[in-house]
């Protein structure tokens, strides 16, 4: 029987066929024919099966056994960080808050929301990681910014497993919370409510929110060149946000490359497009309180942003007149809410004080989940997340005091950009508001002593 015939007969067993192809070459038959015949194997087909079987046994002996799971990982349920979490939950609620940045009640409320979407089915090989552990790992990552390897040692999980859990859970957090806690207002009534809060708390009428942008530092993406390289000589994506009077994010734009300026970020955002196309359902221009001065509703930003009818910024800081200083002071009081919101975010969820070692898309997912979590905790008015004195505050004489978050490193601001050549109407609107702040209807008693 020819070698070719034996090869066809062996095709029923893939393993033996591969061995035959690699071991039983025609030269092997010629050099070993005497040995095979000594075993009473006359046909080449018998020889082929014999050699294939022997080779298969040798390969099995050489193959090293692989452990399905490292030994120290198997004791997760007995010695993992979840055991400490259970003890803190019962005996030390303050320690629990410091560990996960949420109270026990808030943790279980979050768990009830995300559990149906992050629960995994057990397999015949091992038990799955519970939804409670998955949420705990993710909250710990957001609270500390520790590496996946470091978290792996704490929770007794593989670092690759930690990475998958964090990514999946952050996606679920954003998906389930965004409709209730990270949604831009869609009606005139909702916008008016925000404006009323600004007027009541910060004495700035017709303000719809404060806008600013920050860098989220990431590891250099592969083959990205200088696309994400910013003016701070680091790699980043940009976060632009609008914040209401209660430090809650009401609009976010995340993921633009770090080299873009504030003005450039605003210019290419969907917020600007919606404002230009009048799709936000903003309230129409109305009279300022106790006057007949008609003034549009607007956002407030710093000098990096363009001056528009719907976006006010300070007067340039050169040769300022006293009335212009008063306007800048009043605008600054309203704009501080966005600085404080970013300060709270970065110092309570410290993943933003580190370099996020993920690709840009995954860093965006983490950021959006953190923003949803921030708004969720602000909605709860939790002292665990926002202790007294943590944000900027004014005493009875309206002397401004820095919040404790300013004592620590915060997110880096986006660099200055274009946004020049404002319209005459925008300049006139700013001047009208300046005059209003000087009038008996719009002034506050303490403004002169702080400019």
The secondary-structure element order is: HHHHHHHHHHHHEEEHHEEEEHHEEH
Number of beta strands: 9
Main beta sheet strand tally, sense and closure: 5 strands, mixed
Question: Rounded to an integer, what's the Rg over CA atoms?
Answer: 32 Å
Mean of the pLDDT scores? Answer: 83
Helix content: 40-55%
Please give the count of helices: 17
Range of strand content: 5-15%
Helix vs. strand class: alpha/beta
User: What's the number of domains?
Assistant: 3
Unreliable parts: 1-16, 18-25
N-end to C-end Cα span? 105 Å
- Biggest sheet: strands side by side, in what order? 3-2-1-6-7
List keywords for this structure.
451 residues; nuclease; metal-binding; 3 domains; metal ion binding; disordered N terminus; alpha/beta; hydrolase activity; 9 strands; HARBI1-like
Brief digest:
With about 450 residues, the protein is an alpha/beta fold. The protein is built from 17 helices and 9 strands.
Please write out the topology.
Elements: H1 3-9, H2 14-23, H3 26-38, H4 44-62, H5 76-79, H6 81-91, H7 93-100, H8 104-118, H9 131-144, H10 148-155, H11 159-181, H12 188-202, E1 207-217, E2 236-243, E3 249-257, H13 262-267, H14 270-276, E4 286-287, E5 294-295, E6 298-300, E7 311-312, H15 322-348, H16 360-379, E8 393-394, E9 400-401, H17 424-438
Helix pairs in contact: 2-4, 6-7, 8-9, 8-11, 9-11, 10-11, 11-16, 15-17
């Amino acid at each position: 029987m020819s070698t070719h015939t034996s090869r066809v007969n062996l095709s029923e067993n893939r393993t033996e066929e591969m061995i035959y192809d690699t071991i039983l070459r025609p030269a092997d038959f010629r050099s070993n024919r005497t040995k095979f015949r000594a075993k009473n194997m006359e046909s080449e087909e018998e020889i082929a099966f014999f050699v294939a079987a022997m080779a298969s046994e040798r390969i099995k002996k050489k193959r090293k056994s692989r452990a399905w799971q490292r030994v120290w990982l198997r004791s997760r349920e007995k010695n993992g960080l979840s055991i400490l979490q259970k003890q803190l939950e019962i005996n030390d609620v303050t320690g629990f808050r410091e560990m996960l940045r949420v109270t026990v009640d808030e943790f279980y409320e979050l768990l009830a929301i995300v559990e149906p979407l992050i629960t995994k089915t057990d397999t015949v090989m091992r038990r799955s990681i519970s939804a409670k552990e998955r949420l705990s790992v993710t909250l710990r990552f957001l609270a500390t910014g520790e590496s996946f390897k470091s978290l792996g040692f704490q929770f007794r999980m593989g670092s690759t497993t930690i990475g998958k859990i964090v990514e999946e859970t952050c996606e679920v957090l954003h998906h389930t919370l965004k409709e209730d806690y990270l949604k831009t207002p869609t009606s005139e009534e909702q916008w008016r409510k925000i404006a009323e809060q600004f007027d009541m708390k910060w004495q700035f009428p017709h303000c719809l929110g404060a806008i600013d942008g920050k860098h989220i530092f990431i590891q250099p993406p592969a083959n990205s060149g200088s696309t994400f390289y910013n003016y701070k000589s680091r790699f980043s994506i940009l976060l632009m946000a609008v914040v209401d009077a209660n430090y809650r994010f009401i609009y976010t734009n995340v993921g633009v490359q770090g080299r873009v300026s504030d003005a450039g970020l605003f210019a290419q955002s969907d917020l600007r497009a919606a404002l230009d196309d009048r799709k936000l359902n903003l309230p129409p221009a109305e009279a300022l309180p106790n006057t007949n001065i008609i003034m549009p509703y607007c956002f407030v930003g710093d000098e990096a942003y363009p001056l528009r009818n719907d976006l006010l910024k300070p007067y340039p800081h050169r040769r300022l007149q006293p009335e212009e200083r008063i306007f800048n002071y009043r605008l600054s009081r309203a704009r501080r809410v966005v600085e404080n919101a970013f300060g709270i975010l970065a110092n309570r969820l410290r993943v933003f004080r580190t370099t996020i070692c993920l690709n840009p898309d995954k860093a965006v997912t983490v950021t959006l989940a953190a923003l949803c979590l921030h708004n969720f905790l602000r909605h709860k008015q939790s002292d665990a997340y926002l202790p007294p004195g943590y944000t900027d505050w004014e005493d009875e004489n309206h002397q401004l005091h820095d919040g404790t978050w300013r004592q620590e490193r915060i997110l880096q601001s986006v660099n200055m950009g274009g946004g020049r050549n404002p319209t005459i109407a925008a300049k006139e609107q700013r001047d009208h508001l300046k005059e209003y702040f000087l009038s008996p209807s719009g002034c506050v008693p303490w403004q002169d002593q702080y400019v």
